[in-house]
Amino acid sequence: MLYTLENIQALRPIATSETKPNAFFTADEWEAMDAAVATAVRPRLQIFQLLEEHGCGMREEYDITRMWVDDFPLPFIHKDFYIHAKHVADSRKEKYPDYMTIPLMAAQYVAEKVERFLLGIDSDMTNITVQDKSLYGFCNHPDRQTLSIENPLPENPLPANYCPEAFRSEAFRKTLLNTLKKAKAMLFEKGFNKFLVVLSPMWTNCDVEVEQIKSETCVAVMVSEFLPNWTAVVVQLSPDVITAYTDLDITPVKWKSTDEFNIHMKVVCRKVPLLRNPQGVVVITAE
């Protein structure tokens, strides 16, 4: 089925005194579910939301430059699930129905997919192509800039997900910070001057302090659990480089089904990264 904003609304029939076909939830229950989903996904969309806060967000309802998105495929991201109808009926007496846990878990899964898609590390959403037009995140664009961390132990490769004392040394912290300086210099050469830095947890495991990195040019520094090993991303914070595009927020819907006992549902959204200029991105990896 082709999702549109119109048919998403059609998939949310509201139960009334004159129950509509396939309706089950009341308007109050949909409202409560929407509010719970919005709260649940917020911690999983930190980078996407930060882009929006810094002027790199674009929403369909007020966008007057549709041509900006015409060169990108715009996939929907969704997760299917079901709730037993008796479970819903029994838990309606509770102040917070426990059936709500299932759509919240599905919503968190979708939010995680959005964030991993933005970073370019989701193997299920790599190089999405529609009609010969492709969509990439930070780490998987073929024209991104790259930089390698210098190994403080030349006889060994940098170990994955391992941080011995040699990597907690002051010398290695300087190596990491100098690598970030090189990444910023690469972007400065191309006329960029306002950066977001996203680090893998390995960086902070080596006692690199986020506050050490912040500066007039690095306006935001984040740690993402989704980045593997020693990966870090430095990206220009401007919409001509990256746009966080939304025309459907993460939304639960009731899916049509002939199953009498289970309520088949989806959580669906269209929140995608539009990477317009990969030269505004430097991806740092370990040798």
Task: Explain the overall architecture.
By secondary structure, the chain is α/β, with parallel strands linked by helices. It has two domains: 5-136 and 243-275, Major capsid protein gp5 fold (2-Layer Sandwich), CATH 3.30.2400; 145-240 and 280-286, hypothetical protein PF0899 fold (2-Layer Sandwich), CATH 3.30.2320. 30% of the residues lie in helices and 25% in strands. Strands 5-11-8-6-7 form a five-stranded mixed sheet. A four-stranded mixed sheet has the order 1-9-10-2. A two-stranded antiparallel ribbon has the order 3-4. The relative contact order is 0.21.
How are the SSEs placed, and which strands pair?
Elements: H1 5-10, H2 27-41, H3 46-56, E1 57-59, E2 77-84, H4 85-91, H5 101-119, E3 128-130, E4 133-135, E5 145-149, H6 170-188, E6 195-199, H7 201-205, H8 210-213, E7 218-223, E8 232-236, E9 242-254, E10 262-275, E11 281-286
Parallel strand pairs: 1-9, 5-11, 6-7
Antiparallel strand pairs: 2-10, 3-4, 6-8, 8-11, 9-10
Q: Concise description?
A:
The chain is an alpha/beta fold and 287 residues long.
